[in-house]
Amino acid sequence: MTSRKAKVLALSIGNALSSLIGIAVSIVMARVLLKEDLAAYRQTFLAYATVAPIIGLGIGQGMFYFLPTEKLRIRGRLLDGMAVTGTMGVAFATFIAFGGNELLAQRFSNPKIANLLLWMIPYAIITTPTNFVGSVLVARDHATRAAVFGTCRHLFVGASTIIPLLIWQTVEITIVGNLVASILMAFFALRLMLNSTPADSCNPTLAGIRELVTFSMPLALAGMFGTLSLQLDKIIVSAMCPPEEFAVYSLDAIEIPLIGIVTGAITSVALTDMRKAVDAEKPQEALRLFRGIAEKSSLVILPVMVYLLINADALISILYTSVYIDSATPFRLYLLLLPIRTVVFGSIIVAAGASRFVLIRSLTGLVINLVLSILFVSAFGYSGAVLATVSTVYCWDVAANIVVISNLMDTAYRNVIPLRHMATTLISTLPFAIVSILGIHTLGDGNGPLFLSTAAFLSYTILYWRGKLYEPRQLLQYTRGLHLFR
After folding, report:
1. Does the record's keyword annotation contain DNA damage (predicted)?
2. What is the pLDDT of residues 270-327, one digit of tens each?
3. What are the residues whose beta carbons fall under 8 Å from the beta carbon of 29, sequence distance 6 or more?
4. What residue spans define the domains of the chain?
């Protein structure tokens, strides 16, 4: 059996390569398409991304829950899930075909996407039943295979999106390229899932579907509400602002891919072990694994957050040209979510089988976010949408999660999140941050401040991973050793 560290490494590398491909696609699109065409492309896929959690019915998380302990109907569980998600994909396609495209175009204040949304009909029917391929492969101890497939899929879809765009430079052909590649990769995903499961009792059953849906439905609704909450800023901006402003906002109003690269990979592997620990009535072991996700993730994510906060303007100008420099503000605001994104609350809640709480928390958070988004966008413009999301996450989601996990694991509130570990990691970045900020004020415009900041960040990284900057007292001892205080 593959070790936990090897699984995390494989998934991290795969997620990193996939993220780089996604960034490359965004860079090319920002440089080739007009703002209104970029907005149309993003709004078309935003429509599917918004409903993906509900038509997926939380089956991916259901696979994590059932497959690790299933003995008799392993492939049957898989086919149960595919039958359900396939039906939901057809339902979404039917909605689009019978007027849903026009309705969404009106809601997004962009008539141009009505025809583009018709391409989502075959996309939803064919790709939806295989969207949980990663969950199945990891649950079946094929993390490396999941990472390789994920990377190949992103590379193929990315290339199929970029190449037609560079040749014909139209948003329609860009969507078609993405569609064709995604459909082809869906057939490969199907084969991988079938090969990873033994041909035991392989027919889907009503009892199996009922059990899977009963467990997964609260997670599906929670996923929908959670996705709506995170996508709500884009939906509100799309509805209340012109397409050109939405293009600027949506380009960098995102959580950096590092979350998926690091936290996502660690969580995917640890979730199976947490489920087994809970099943064996070892809550402290499950809590240890849960805290370990945050501790390991924060070592990478928090220093990168500081670097990006300081250099957002320069990086956006280099990647997307100065036309999109206004994207720096929502990008910086989204970075404020990174400290709490190192803590994957849902992992331990799902492992404990408390899926109904996830639903209640997500629905309440969605309502709070909706009210704040409308108020803040009216008051502050499109950046107010991010402020609403950040406020909702910290003031509601985090507090509710801590209370519930504390009760589930029978531990004090302070033990849920490794705050001390996260704080010391942030404190250790102070010398690098000070050097970078001084460089910006001293060197002025140009690439000089970015080069200086990058050099300081790389130096910090080398020292940090050698164990010199882990605790504030170690930082003090290290600087004294360099005679800086003599």
Report:
1. no
2. 666 776 777 677 778 878 877 877 887 788 888 888 998 888 888 888 878 777 787 7
3. 38, 41, 165, 174
4. 4-427, 428-486
